[in-house]
UniProtKB/TrEMBL annotation:
Superkingdom, taxonomy of origin: Bacteria
Protein name: Uncharacterized protein
Species the sequence originates in: Pseudanabaena cinerea FACHB-1277
Length: 80
């Protein structure tokens, strides 16, 4: 089978021309192919936020959603 070489831009343009059903199929394929990396990143982030809370005297598991949001906002803006 002949090999066709396309630039990223060409691939994107071709995908844009596909019917929605095929775009959805491509999206699912890409999502599934990256799922483990997303899961690993999510677990890493969850571990780090628990550690950051514990280092500042908080228990992440016992915090309310508002407390968690305020904590993250404070850490991001270096208020703690």
């Amino acid at each position: 089978m002949p090999m066709l070489t396309l630039s990223n831009e060409q691939v994107v343009e071709l995908v844009k021309q596909l019917p929605q059903e095929q775009k959805t199929e491509i999206f699912r394929f890409l999502l599934i192919s990256q799922w483990q990396q997303w899961q690993d990143l999510s677990n890493y982030g969850a571990d780090k936020v628990r550690l950051a809370a514990r280092q500042r005297g908080y228990d992440w598991e016992k915090m309310t959603e508002d407390e968690k949001e305020n904590f993250i906002d404070a850490v991001v803006h270096e208020k703690l």
